[in-house]
């Protein structure tokens, strides 16, 4: 059997609830109506009985025990009222008047005359007489001297009350059906609103998504922390606890993020609503690379999520990827360049110009030997040497000349500066210089660098169209690109890398009319405070 949808189940439950309420309330109402009706009928019967007992003609007929006169009076009074029967008896309880004349002279039935005949009380009774169960009003007949002469019994058969109750019962049933219809319409409306609030998902789908969410959170290597609008932790996965050295058994959900991690910056995210990507942050003594994004419900910020990994882990991955990319680029450039030169040498040999072929081979060997010698003597970091060699070959492949100032020098990098950061910085600046030079029909890109003094300085000049002063700040913004000037690709990474290293960059005009980018990186970190 297919599982019912939540809207169907909600509608069924509401209908059953309304039916139950209607049954209880209807039963109570009918019971109350029946009781109240009996009380009202009883009071009416008592009033009629008291009035009849005080009638002089009834008193006289009771005193003389004149059953004929009493029967005539009783029938006239019964027809004048809505009573089912009027029965009158003497002081012995023998009928003097009855709706059925043949029962006159016989004892009254019901056993409820004693209080009237012996105590002289007027009252309401419920008993079964010769006509059936009835509600009766009993009143004694007194003589002028106060002696009890008999009893008047005015009654309404219980069966006649059922017709009145049935009319009211139909009203109750009609109201119940109207409430049931209203509840169905209300249930449909509520179920639609409810389904919209939970994005049309069924409970079993929500449960599956919850399990998938938990499994996903625990399977990723990134630490993940989520908070609500009040800054209380709602999610804190195992990777986050391990990375930050927190107890995995200590409950963190529901605790303020400011109490657990005061420097997380998540409260700032809730206020600004602006996402942050790849920012560096120190938490619990660990340097992390953090992404923070707000959780929104429409335009309203309802929480925030932060994901992070240790910086040294990402640096290791970046280092391996950088080396692979450098090897691939170097091999590709060399293969392309050597293929062209081999074709040239082969052609020279075929036409007999062997001396010229030997000159080309010697020149190629000397150029690479000089470059390798310079890299060995002037650049200590192997990763940086590999980057420069790859960019040198890339320039040749593009038909450009990468000229490195022979006086340049770059020794061992300070411990806080990862070689991969310098590769990111230098590689993106050179790539943009190549693009700019090609776009303007230039031929040469100049590079100089030095580690003398208190800063590492890298200067790149191109023969491109230059950068207008109005754009010299905007070219480093995320997503900015200018095809005309060849800028924008990777320059945001340049600024981000320099910001992480505490450095800066300037843009000016080169001597050739292109652009000059100069990056400055301090050798020592500034101490806080």
Q: What is the strand tally? A: 15
- Using the alpha-carbon principal axes, give the shape: rod-shaped
Protein structure class: alpha+beta
CATH names the topology of the largest domain as: Beta-Lactamase
Order of helices and strands: HHHEEHEEEHHEEHHHEEEHHHEHEEHEE
Q: How large a portion of the residues is in β-strands, by DSSP E? A: 15-25%
Low-confidence stretches: 483-489
The gyration radius over C-alpha positions equals 53 Å
Strand order of the largest sheet: 2-1-5-4-3
What is the count of helical runs?
A: 14
Q: What's the CATH C level of the largest domain? A: Alpha Beta
Q: Can you walk through the features of this model?
A:
The chain has 529 residues and is an alpha+beta fold. The chain has three domains: 7-163, Beta-Lactamase (2-Layer Sandwich); 222-311, 2-Layer Sandwich (Beta-Lactamase), CATH 3.30.450; 368-522, Heat Shock Protein 90. It is built from 14 helices and 15 strands. It has helices spanning 6-53, 56-64, 67-80, 114-119, 158-197, 203-219, 238-244, 257-260, 266-272, 311-350, 354-378, 382-397, 419-439, 491-501; strands at 85-90, 95-97, 123-129, 132-142, 148-157, 223-228, 233-236, 276-283, 286-297, 300-310, 401-404, 444-450, 455-461, 504-509, 515-522. The strands form three sheets. It has a five-stranded antiparallel sheet. Strands 7-6-10-9-8 form a five-stranded antiparallel sheet. A hairpin with a 4-residue loop joins strand 1 and strand 2. Helix 1 (6-53) packs antiparallel against helix 5, helix 2 runs antiparallel to helix 3 and helix 13 (419-439) runs antiparallel to helix 14. The protein is rod-shaped. Mean pLDDT is 81; it is low at 483-489.
